[in-house]
Amino acid sequence: ETGVTQTPRHLVMGMTNKKSLKCEQHLGHNAMYWYKQSAKKPLELMFVYSLEERVENNSVPSRFSPECPNSSHLFLHLHTLQPEDSALYLCASRPDRASVEKLFFGSGTQLSVL
Amino acid sequence: AQKVTQAQTEISVVEKEDVTLDCVYETRDTTYYLFWYKQPPSGELVFLIRRNSFDEQNEISGRYSWNFQKSTSSFNFTITASQVVDSAVYFCALSEAKNDYKLSFGAGTTVTVRA
């Protein structure tokens, strides 16, 4: 148990649907991350929030829209996705954005786009 | 740009064998941090170790050991006397002091330990 909770664990959606992924941490961390994990590829950093301010938007298509309403919650809103967006989406947090800090990960949301 | 390469995609061993996972990194920063994470079937990545660029001492923790060599830009991980519970995907990662929020991962190595 890392202290980072992601819901739902599994999600199947059509290309015209709108859905949201949720991440929650009560570790008192100030930095939160979204990563995309595709088979046989490095984890891709998507978004980083530090103190609720977005500090990284790593050339992610606009069909992915993050939201960080407070330091404990992070959302990833999805709309008009493509089949190639099917992947495991991992949320992580760390005490602050400093490079020395380790990340605490959730178990991920396995997304399938039909 | 920072980059992490894990050349081994999959490794399969029989229980009690040793297994070494390779990690090679690229960075122009003189201050950086290297990490290893384990991802069991449940999905969440679990932190194993962190080394900073100024500390080349090798480390041993139980059956796990790490060999950090700046001369070859490598940070290899060895599991001694492997067990079935070691079956997982293992990721090497790099964080640079100049890009403080960014943690870059390799593609991971899937380790399967057979009984």
Mean pLDDT of chain B: 93
Give the N-to-C terminal Cα separation of chain A.
Answer: 31 Å
The major beta sheet of chain B can be summarized as: 6 strands, mixed
* Helix and strand element order of chain B: EEEEEEEEEEEE
Shape of chain A: globular
The coarse overall form of chain B would be: globular
Oligomer: heterodimer
Structural class of chain B: mainly beta
Q: What structural class do you assign from the helix and strand content of chain A?
A: mainly beta
Distance between the termini of chain B: 41 Å
β-strand amount of chain A: over 45%
Largest interface: A-B, 29 and 28 residues
Can you give keywords for this protein?
heterodimer; A: 114 residues; mainly beta; seven-stranded mixed beta sheet; four-stranded antiparallel beta sheet; 56% strand; B: mainly beta; 54% strand
Q: Could you describe the 3D structure shown?
A:
Chain A has 114 residues and is an all-beta fold. Chain A has strands at residues 4-7, 10-13, 18-25, 31-37, 44-50, 53-57, 64-70, 73-79, 87-94, 104-105, 109-113. Chain B is mainly β and 115 residues long. In chain B, a hairpin with a 6-residue loop joins strand 10 (88-96) and strand 11 (103-105). Chain A binds chain B through residues 2, 4, 31, 33, 35, 40-43, 45, 48, 50, 55-56, 88, 90, 92, 97-100, 102-108, 110, and chain B through 4, 9, 32-33, 35, 37, 42-47, 50, 52, 91, 95-97, 99-108.
